[in-house]
C-alpha cells in the first residue's frame, strides 16, 4: 500500500477488494467511463483473475476516491479506467493515482506504459500530456470475439 497526501486528503492506494467493487463501478459511472457493451463488474473480476493485472483504488477513510485498472501483457503495461471522484479532480489525486499504477506496472516488469483516451476527450489528453504521455502515432484496432459489435 502506498500513501499520498493531496490538499489535506489522505489517500491510501491498494488493490481492490470485494467490498470495493460497487464503489468502483459507481466512480466509473460518475466519471463517464462505462459503456453499455462493457460490464464494469466483469471488467473488475477479469482484472483480478490473473497476477498480470489489477484494479488499484485510492481510498480516503472508507471511501473509494480514485481507481486505475493496470495490466501487463508481457511487452508493455496498459492503464484503463483511471478515475478520480469528480469532487476531487484538480487536487493532484489523478497524478497520484497514475503514479501508483505506474509503480505497480514497473514492479510487474513493464518497461513502457500505454493508455487509450477517447479522441473527443481533449481535457484528459491534456492531463496525460502534463504527465509525460505522448501520442504513439498508432491506430488501435479491435475485434469482438462474440460478434456483438
Structural class: alpha+beta
| Rounded radius of gyration (Å) | 15 Å
Report the strand count.
Answer: 6
Shape: globular
User: Number of helical segments?
Assistant: 4
Describe what this molecule looks like in 3D.
By secondary structure, the chain is an alpha+beta fold. It is 30% helix and 28% strand. It has 4 helices and 6 strands, in the order E-E-H-H-E-E-E-H-E-H. It has a 6-stranded mixed sheet. The model has no long low-confidence stretch (mean pLDDT 91).
Short description:
This protein has helices at 21-30, 40-48, 93-108, 122-130, and strands spanning 2-6, 9-15, 53-60, 63-72, 77-84, 113-115.
List keywords for this structure.
globular, alpha+beta, 149 residues, single chain, 4 helices, 30% helix
Record the SSE blueprint.
Blueprint (H helix, E strand, L loop, with lengths): L1 E5 L2 E7 L5 H10 L9 H9 L4 E8 L2 E10 L4 E8 L8 H16 L4 E3 L6 H9 L19
Parallel strand pairs: 5-6
Antiparallel strand pairs: 1-2, 2-3, 3-4, 4-5
